[in-house]
Amino acid sequence: MNNRRARRAARPGKVPAAFTLAQLEDWQARRTPPAPGVSMIDGYLTALVVSPRFLPPEDWLGPIVGGEVIWAPGGSTEAAIRTTIFQRYSQIGATLSGGPKRYAPIYMRTDDGEVLLEDFANGFYHGMQLSIDDWKPVMSDPAIGPAMTAILGHCTNMIPEHERQAAISPQAADLLAQSWRIIPELVEMLHRTIAGARNIEIH
């Protein structure tokens, strides 16, 4: 019986219950037009976890991976994509709520190892937009708003890029180039301050 089960599990073409993040990246890239990559999704999910207001999955899943994923039947590729997204969402929440590992954002990097924060920042801002009225008081808090520059200073979706670049002084540009180092601590602070000890797991 065990052997028969093993053979069934190895059937060609069977969709796994979840994908790796690399497989999620490939799936998004194959869509027409190409959809947001894993770094942008990671920023998006991070904003949702630390958000002042909890949003149910049906409110936030469609905007990042498409509406067909929300109610996809079990065993389909879309269902596996949904599970992959939920697993990363839960992992971020569990880590920020005192898990054994530190929060580690997913960044894009060049072949030379340079960290590119635009995708993560754009995803974070996109996540904020879903409950922006709840974020406005947070952003006006002098203990939080200025610190958010470490993330939103890299966002290319808030204002036209030429305006963003014109607003950044050489000194600020140097600081922003290193801000990826403090984003883990910043996100942990946001979670403590805004979301408290919330840790919502999606199954």
Describe the 3D structure:
Strand 1 and strand 2 form a beta hairpin. Helix 3 packs across helix 5 and helix 3 packs across helix 6. The chain is globular. By secondary structure, the protein is mainly alpha-helical. The protein is built from 11 helices and 2 strands. The protein has one domain: Four Helix Bundle (Hemerythrin (Met), subunit A). A two-stranded antiparallel ribbon has the order 1-2.
Provide a quick synopsis of the model.
By secondary structure, the protein is an all-alpha fold. The protein is built from eleven helices and two strands, in the order αααααββαααααα. The chain has a single domain, classed as Four Helix Bundle (Hemerythrin (Met), subunit A) (Up-down Bundle), CATH 1.20.120.
